[in-house]
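Researcher: Please translate sequence to structure tokens.
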Amino acid sequence: MERGVLMPREGSIRGTLTAIFYRLGMKALQPLYEVYEKWLWMQIRGGPFPRHIGIIPDGNRRWARRLGFDPSLGHIYGYERMKEVLKWIWDLGIRYVTIYAMSTENCKYRSNGEREHLFNLARKGLRELRELRDIHERKVRVKVFGTLDLVPSDIVELAKELEKETEKYDSYQLNIALCYGGRQEILDAVKAVVRDVIDGKITVDDISEEAFSKYLYTSEAPDPDLIIRTSGEERISNFLLWQSAYSELYFCDVYWPEFRKIDFWRAIRSYQMRERRFGR
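Model: Translation complete:
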């Protein structure tokens, strides 16, 4: 199957025809695509590459609707795309990646059926990560964080088991934000700081930006250098609010299931072209 093309397994006749014509068009363009991919690689291969990438994989349902399919199929294909994108990231030697898997809004306000569908994908993903060769060969430590009391207990247990199995890995780190909200993360950190002040572990004068960062879910990773969001939406949507203060933001106008390597490399190229002065 051509890169960047995902063929639906089921759906309407209109959607199937749309997908077929889309695939034929991509096949015709494949030689040009390969030349363009090589040209992009020549531009970015010398680096620098970000240490930490955050991903907001948006547009799964809209992608499915555009092809005339049940929106739930978009999440399935989006999940498959994520596995491929992670390999691209690790192939570049990028050590940290944080995926916005589910927001607190997803967990609270989506319909029961859609929420259960997303949780089933989370179950599948955590189980597959335990068996994924790349996780163990590349020594990828996995962390799952968010408002986990909104998450079914069996998924939380799967997450704990995966974290335990990979806790000694130190080459790469994969953060999975599940039922996550940046405002809630900051509130949780503030509460932890207050408790430590009350308990005498720290004083008010000990509180600094660096000290506060250690109370965040991402305390063991540097702040993201680059955040990529697909689907054409240009907002952060409550993702890593504290950590993204100086992140480079890249908004891509393709839906997540059709995100290609050339889209990823364009994001890297954009990052490399920016002058990062951190306010100086």
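Researcher: Any highlights?
Model: Confidence is low (pLDDT under 50) at residues 1-11.
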